[in-house]
């Protein structure tokens, strides 16, 4: 399905909108003034209330809208690609210039600024991958300078189970966690607020149709099981992590909160920004057959620019511009999202509509492209200086982290993901 | 609350029943002939249909029964201790000899053998701990003979997030998973069916009332957040695990299935079988203050005998008795369940009613007490011999593993947990 690149919307703010022009049409769940959460589509600075416009849809598109009822998109995700595409096509008609829907504007549109966004789905299981190879190397170097990548990295799309109950939409405050940490040079831990609080820049992947337990999803079918994408901040307590993570992996260092951008950017909206998986460097092994699919190799990667901004309380008071911490791209993913899906289910593990994957931190190889303070400051050894005169090794109370994403390509309308924000508040 | 030790039930099979005498009264979810799942109480060889007997309850006990509607106990778990105790007290009256409920026997009781058991709750998040110190030492010895326990073990109740979507009730077949494994002496993995399939004997813990994100559950309050207990088999693919688990922990080696016994044995039923946490060996550190509570130290541990049996297809054909693999006890837990709850939430992580914890493998220190084949056969080096003449390093297709638990104490009726069974079937 090609993008109607030239088509303009009767929603004036959509035309040229950085995130939500007519060509994007991400889905989400919103409420107004404490109303029950309901499904909507972002268009410019507005939100289309899908149920208020229900009688404009029929066939598969109507099935799709009906499946978004109840303030959760899980049933819609489960419907898969066909109804999702039908909904998109009808939305493109309804929101294009000349559509009669404009006469019902007051009934079906809300100002996004008046709305509260919610998680788009009930998340049954959350899995965090580690496919950002530059991040894996940068972090590995801090611990093992000569041998940063473990032997399994180029064979296994490494991932681990994350905590689903503390995933929250953009804007939720980030309470500094307390926990055990081992002071340098000591053999016994102390307990207190995390002193090395960090962000991690990740792509989030919403799972669509699930699989029955015992049935693997073949790599060639995996794209059909992906409903959409978001931004994800895998907030990390580095000092807690360092002490707790052996031998079973990160636990309390991650589970205090994970933030996501609330809009589900569909695979269809991202279609123009797909690209071939970059060839593996010479000497790297080819993926095992269950992870190898020609179509996925040719078009399973994405060109999505990713950005992280920081403001401190002092910077906001002084109206100083945000400090850019990271400018990276999804091209640093060593494994595609289809490979993640195929790997995750190859043992028969059941995926369900509304499951969320994180990509792992998507750093680039160069300074300025690192997706966490752990990498930027080399574990706190090289603090960064801010325009306010403040310095940061890790995040302080009052700091706000903003993730953004943007897709641009000659001849196509640019789209974005909306923001994923979180402000650190003091430990209780 | 003391057990009415001498009281007999009008349900004849309950009196002297190995698992479900009147003094146990575990809750579960069952169906008959494909009916909608509903809540019940195990009593002898029968199941009391709670909703069929609804008009026998009032006050808090009735609130409790009403909260078990819909084939999931989550809302009941969320009610906490008060209504759970009220329900138990009323059930003790209703099922005791002399109760008029006996006149309605045909209406309210079903033969358990005619029923199918389901998961008792929707599991939002599943966390697997590692508090069996003998298991941690036995496994650690295989990798690090001189230094089996990592430095954090005696400070941190180690745990990791598990996969919730593939937790299944006893009796669900265990499909042998496929995955990547590294053949001995090779540097590149191969793909195929797991060749080192194992069981792990664990205690399961059902979480009751949850906490708000950001609010830790104090160790002194933790017991109030535990709804009940079950048996849990953390099926493990050792060859997949060895290759995948660095640096983020076990993933596909565990997520193909986790089996639980379907009956929720309440804290009240286990009250007589509580005991003091054994004193820590000399030289071990004391728990940090957030993990230390006098009442928990004095009565937070349990004396529950745990047993694992194996039958092979050939043994069943020949009617040979099951082979006992493990006879262990919950006394080998280095951390109490209250300590697990306090630790899990100390960073503000939200627990929710229906979350499930696994204890980690509960091995004892002696041969015969090891809770996995990895320990029993020393990683496959010392195969076990069965009465059928077969040998086992790890599990073969057709093998069935049966977990059982039993609580006995002089002067009290013995109770059990019911079984947690699973039979291995060939990889697809």
From TrEMBL, chains A, B:
<dbReference type="InterPro" id="IPR011234">
    <property type="entry name" value="Fumarylacetoacetase-like_C"/>
</dbReference>
<feature type="binding site">
    <location>
        <position position="254"/>
    </location>
    <ligand>
        <name>Mg(2+)</name>
    </ligand>
</feature>
<feature type="active site" description="Proton acceptor">
    <location>
        <position position="135"/>
    </location>
</feature>
<dbReference type="InterPro" id="IPR036663">
    <property type="entry name" value="Fumarylacetoacetase_C_sf"/>
</dbReference>
<comment type="similarity">
    <text>Belongs to the hydratase/decarboxylase family.</text>
</comment>
<feature type="binding site">
    <location>
        <position position="258"/>
    </location>
    <ligand>
        <name>Mg(2+)</name>
    </ligand>
</feature>
<feature type="binding site">
    <location>
        <position position="245"/>
    </location>
    <ligand>
        <name>substrate</name>
    </ligand>
</feature>
<keyword id="KW-0460">Magnesium</keyword>
<feature type="binding site">
    <location>
        <position position="234"/>
    </location>
    <ligand>
        <name>Ca(2+)</name>
    </ligand>
</feature>
<keyword id="KW-0378">Hydrolase</keyword>
<dbReference type="InterPro" id="IPR015377">
    <property type="entry name" value="Fumarylacetoacetase_N"/>
</dbReference>
<comment type="pathway">
    <text>Amino-acid degradation; L-phenylalanine degradation; acetoacetate and fumarate from L-phenylalanine: step 6/6.</text>
</comment>
<feature type="binding site">
    <location>
        <position position="130"/>
    </location>
    <ligand>
        <name>substrate</name>
    </ligand>
</feature>
<protein>
    <recommendedName>
        <fullName>fumarylacetoacetase</fullName>
        <ecNumber>3.7.1.2</ecNumber>
    </recommendedName>
</protein>
<keyword id="KW-0828">Tyrosine catabolism</keyword>
<feature type="binding site">
    <location>
        <position position="202"/>
    </location>
    <ligand>
        <name>Ca(2+)</name>
    </ligand>
</feature>
<feature type="region of interest" description="Disordered">
    <location>
        <begin position="167"/>
        <end position="187"/>
    </location>
</feature>
<dbReference type="Pfam" id="PF09298">
    <property type="entry name" value="FAA_hydrolase_N"/>
</dbReference>
<dbReference type="GO" id="GO:0046872">
    <property type="term" value="F:metal ion binding"/>
</dbReference>
<keyword id="KW-0479">Metal-binding</keyword>
<dbReference type="GO" id="GO:1902000">
    <property type="term" value="P:homogentisate catabolic process"/>
</dbReference>
<feature type="binding site">
    <location>
        <position position="361"/>
    </location>
    <ligand>
        <name>substrate</name>
    </ligand>
</feature>
<dbReference type="GO" id="GO:0006572">
    <property type="term" value="P:L-tyrosine catabolic process"/>
</dbReference>
<dbReference type="Pfam" id="PF01557">
    <property type="entry name" value="FAA_hydrolase"/>
</dbReference>
<feature type="binding site">
    <location>
        <position position="200"/>
    </location>
    <ligand>
        <name>Ca(2+)</name>
    </ligand>
</feature>
<dbReference type="InterPro" id="IPR036462">
    <property type="entry name" value="Fumarylacetoacetase_N_sf"/>
</dbReference>
<dbReference type="GO" id="GO:0004334">
    <property type="term" value="F:fumarylacetoacetase activity"/>
</dbReference>
<feature type="domain" description="Fumarylacetoacetase N-terminal">
    <location>
        <begin position="23"/>
        <end position="120"/>
    </location>
</feature>
<keyword id="KW-0106">Calcium</keyword>
<feature type="binding site">
    <location>
        <position position="234"/>
    </location>
    <ligand>
        <name>Mg(2+)</name>
    </ligand>
</feature>
<dbReference type="GO" id="GO:0006559">
    <property type="term" value="P:L-phenylalanine catabolic process"/>
</dbReference>
<feature type="binding site">
    <location>
        <position position="241"/>
    </location>
    <ligand>
        <name>substrate</name>
    </ligand>
</feature>
<feature type="domain" description="Fumarylacetoacetase-like C-terminal">
    <location>
        <begin position="134"/>
        <end position="425"/>
    </location>
</feature>
<keyword id="KW-0585">Phenylalanine catabolism</keyword>
<feature type="binding site">
    <location>
        <position position="128"/>
    </location>
    <ligand>
        <name>Ca(2+)</name>
    </ligand>
</feature>
<dbReference type="InterPro" id="IPR005959">
    <property type="entry name" value="Fumarylacetoacetase"/>
</dbReference>
<feature type="binding site">
    <location>
        <position position="144"/>
    </location>
    <ligand>
        <name>substrate</name>
    </ligand>
</feature>
């Amino acid at each position: 399905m090609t993008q109607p690149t030239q088509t303009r919307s009767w929603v004036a703010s959509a035309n040229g909108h950085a995130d939500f022009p007519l060509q994007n049409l991400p889905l989400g769940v919103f409420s107004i003034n404490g109303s029950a959460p309901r499904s909507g589509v972002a268009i410019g600075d507005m939100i289309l209330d899908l149920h208020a416009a229900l009688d404009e849809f029929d066939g598969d598109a109507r099935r799709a809208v009906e499946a978004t009822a109840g303030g959760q998109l899980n049933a819609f995700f489960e419907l898969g690609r066909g109804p999702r595409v039908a909904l998109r096509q009808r939305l493109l008609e309804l929101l294009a210039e000349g559509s009669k829907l404009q006469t019902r504007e007051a009934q079906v549109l809300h100002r996004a600024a008046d709305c509260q966004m919610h998680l788009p789905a009930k998340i049954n299981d959350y899995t965090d991958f580690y496919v950002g190879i530059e991040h894996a190397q940068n972090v590995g170097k801090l611990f093992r300078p000569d041998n940063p990548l473990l032997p399994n990295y180029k064979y296994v799309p490494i991932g681990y189970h994350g905590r689903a109950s503390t995933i929250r939409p953009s804007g939720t405050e980030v309470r500094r966690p307390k926990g055990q940490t081992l002071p340098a040079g000591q053999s016994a831990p102390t307990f207190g607020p995390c002193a090395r609080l960090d962000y991690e820049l990740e792509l989030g992947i919403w799972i669509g149709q699930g699989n029955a337990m015992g049935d693997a999803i073949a790599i060639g079918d995996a794209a059909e099981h992906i409903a959409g994408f978001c931004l994800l901040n895998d907030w990390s307590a580095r000092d807690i992590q360092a002490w707790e993570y052996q031998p079973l992996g990160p636990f309390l260092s991650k589970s205090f909160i994970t933030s996501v951008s609330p809009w589900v950017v569909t695979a269809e909206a991202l279609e123009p920004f797909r690209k071939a998986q970059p060839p593996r460097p010479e000497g790297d092994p080819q993926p095992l057959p269950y992870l190898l699919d020609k179509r996925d190799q040719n078009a399973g990667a994405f060109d999505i620019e990713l950005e992280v901004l920081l403001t401190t309380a002092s910077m906001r008071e002084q109206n100083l511009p945000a400090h850019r911490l990271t400018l990276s791209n999804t091209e640093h993913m060593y494994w595609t999202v289809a490979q993640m899906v195929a790997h995750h289910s190859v043992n028969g593990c059941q995926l369900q509509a509304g499951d969320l994957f994180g990509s792992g931190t998507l750093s680039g190889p160069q300074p300025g492209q690192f997706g966490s303070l752990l990498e930027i400051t080399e574990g706190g050894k090289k603090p960064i200086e801010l325009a306010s005169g403040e310095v940061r090794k890790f995040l302080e109370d009052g700091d706000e982290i903003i993730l953004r994403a943007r897709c641009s390509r000659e001849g196509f309308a640019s789209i974005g993901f909306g923001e994923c924000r979180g402000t650190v508040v003091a430990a209780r």
